[in-house]
Fold each of these.
Amino acid sequence: MNRKETTPLYRKITDDLKTAIEKGSYSKGDLLPSENDLCKTYNTTRATIRQALGALMISGHITRKHGKGSIVAEPKNGLGILSLKGFTAGIGNKPLSTVILQKPSKQAWSEDFYYALEEDELAAGCIFFVRLRYLDQKPLLYEETHITNLNLPHFTSRNLENRSLFRILEENYQVKVKEGEQKIWAINGNEPVSKLLNVTSGHPLVHMKRRLQTNIRNLNIYSSLYCNTEEYFLQDYF
């Protein structure tokens, strides 16, 4: 294993064990290899192994019992929708599909928009579209997106179905996300959004409003997201 890589070793161990659990190499109730065995496998210290196992406990993949070891649990699946790399990058190899509920169109900003806007943004207007994201053919994420309409020629003709927005922006417009701000609430879903996510009205949902700043001055990406976390938890690395 190459120790010169930037990813910490404990995270590599965590990811390896998580993948083995999710692929069925270990079933619910199975014991993971002992700390000593993992130390030998990864040629590392007990402290590093315990850090990796601690991360697996937090994610719900294992429980630990004194004198017995690390026992495989029945975890929910993690979603990296908090990532600045975008939802597509945050879900790894899970089967994702996207339905465009409203195609991209140029609009003026609403007067009560949920973030304060710069004068250049107000003057440029925005490109607005709505997507519903599916994971394993189940509706998971409802997303309304506004992008400042600066230097984005022909964007409204782009096909966003089953494609990464961030990749489209980077490959076609040299626009890259640099930093961002996210606000997160736990809410009871209203009837329209709950129906789209195939849950009963009032079912708990995660609501996120985010502003992502790019390498282009005042070209920002704004999203209002609703996520059904009944079968998933939100995760990311910092």
Amino acid sequence: MKKNFLLITGGTGGHVIPAKNFANYLSRKEINCTIITDKRGYKYFDDYNGKIYTISSSNLNGNFIFKIFGIFQILFGLFQSFIIVFSLKPSHTLSFGSYASFSPMLVCIFFKPFYKVKLYIHEQNSIIGRTNKFFLNFTNKLFLNFDIKSKFNLNFKDKIFVVGSPENNFQKNIHKSNKNFDGTFTIFISGGSQGSEFISNFATNLIKMIDNEKIIKAKFIFQCSKHLIKKIEEELRNIKSPIILKDFFINVDEILASANLAICRAGAGTIVDLINFRIPSILIPLPSSKDNHQFFNALMLAKHDLATIIDQNNDDLNEAKKNIYKIYNNAEKLESMKKKFDTIKVKNSSTLIYKLIVNEN
């Protein structure tokens, strides 16, 4: 039977970017691949030339009216998914989670006995998402970014594989880049795919504090929401340290390759980037993340002494500043961190996932 892949994703970059990377991998192998995503996820597929379908989706948070509206959106997404899957007749379906994946996965389960479609799930976070958990019993294999197999029932042990997160070609080539700095310490600040206002304000105050004390020579590359740029520019207009402030960076891989430290959220994609590019970090997990998964993602690095976790509710600028100074002034610590990053094995994830799918009996 001809391989016909359907990838399902949506929502934030943490769910969508691994799906896009795997889709591009399949395209390079000239394998037929189609994407189903939602409106939020669609914006991340700017460099994907394959077929993409956008469906309606919603979570069921909020007040009663929002919940009713959300139910109608889900039902419409279910209808859209039915038409798409019926016409595609996929041989393999791989879901990357988020609530946007619920309707198309449900339809794929319905068609499974008719099309013999094989179902797979990829979990990016250190806590399995609720949508992925719902479909776990129906899937042929569960692919994990992090080794969290101990958190699953033993009944699932034969279908669980730790594969990492699908990467792009550029990351594979430069994740071992040199992180030495010659006088200027580059700090990359990012609020994640949603542009955190808290991190933007936290980082602005931290930059003013560091610039005022003049203990280190730092350069700041600062990504924030577009609507905050004028406000931050005004607050930082007297700063002597070099600052590059934008709402979006096209060359983010090059920036990560040159960064000596990052201040950011702790989404799964962010953690993978920090490992790939060997960047020590100050992580501020999103308190409202489902099942507090960002905190557990951050622990994956903190337990190796590769990240400091700041509780957003404490807003501890002094703790962040102290850790920046400690890394800047300690060449031995930097070298030790490099070695610790090298012990975290970076898998050739896309190839591994593909082989585990196509070699299945």
Amino acid sequence: MLELAIVGFGNRGSTFAKILKDEPRVKLVAIAETDEVNRKLAETEFGVDPAKCFSSADEFFAQGKICDAIVLCTQDKQHCEMAVRAMELGYDMLLEKPAATTMDDCLKIRDTANRLGRKVMLAHGLRYAPFFYTIKKLILGGKLGDIVTINLTENISFWHFGLSYVRGPWRNMEQSTPTILAKCCHDLDLISWFMNKKCKKVSSFGSLQYFCEKNAPKGSAKYCVDCDEETRKKCLYNPYEIYTQERAKGGTGGTRRLIGKDIKAIIDDKCDEIGKCVYHSDNDAIDHQVVNLLFEGGETAHLTMTAFSKRCYRFLKIHGTEGEVYGDVGKGILHYNPYDGEPQEIDVNNMIKTDNSAVLGHGGGDYFLFMDFLSYLLNEEKTITRTTINESMESHVIGFKAEESRLKGGETLCIVE
């Protein structure tokens, strides 16, 4: 039986714990987590020995190599140092995306893994979601002919963006990660995976358009508790309303840090970013961005990232020389139109493993991602979905180049191999 540890037991870490709980090939033997509530959860819900529920990554690493592999789910800024340290101790690893917050750090992780012969897989869970996996099979089966262009829109949703990218850990790009990497690393990976060619040029535009003081309504204040009552009642981002709803209690969309806490008291006491006005915060995360990609054969792709949607979902359309496919990931229905045949609808909802709520994340991909990680550790045959640290560098390079282009006013940049 494989023994695993999870470093960072927040939203993503606990999701993987739920998946492995009933998996006979693996056992969770240790966690490292700064939050006491989450450490207690590891003990009570997942049966981790209290002596191995460490209060920091440093404390965990100080034990030496105590299991076979780790799942690293800490904040993006911490990835490089912790990943390198883990590999030097002998650990193989499932690493949350993005790999790191700079291209140099991403390459350092990759080069360390190669030098030490460690197995490092990126948690690009969307590849494994039945919606996207089915599209990949259509492409590999020649159903679309040659891919000519791809359009993908990441609709973050107004409330999710407000929580995670204005009031949350990813609000400041210098302290965390450029938004295009933090939120759309998945999307860039999907585009590269579907196209299966090298991206040669990138251009990008985007900005922080809305979540700033110029759009603050009359009567607003730095902290929502001090806001004029009538102004607060009309505000879409009133934390007393949106973070006490059921979706927040379930840990969706970055709300994991609120579980088990008195949300109203936190807002009243001004002790967490969730109580700050979205127009008077210290955020600089981009709330909309477009990325244009040119591939080596002349193929093109376009990615739109936006905070301004009601639902949190992705919409994808792929145009090929012999067919097209498109759909809303949240609805789980693919529309496949072969040019020489009748349109078809493919319902992927019944492909999702629904007896474990943890797998519903990333369109049902998290379960299959974790199973593939176990397969990787057990030296089983490689799947078409697996993305190791070497293969994941493609989407990371695109992301960092897109951010560079945005900062240069949309200048077209070449990707040098």
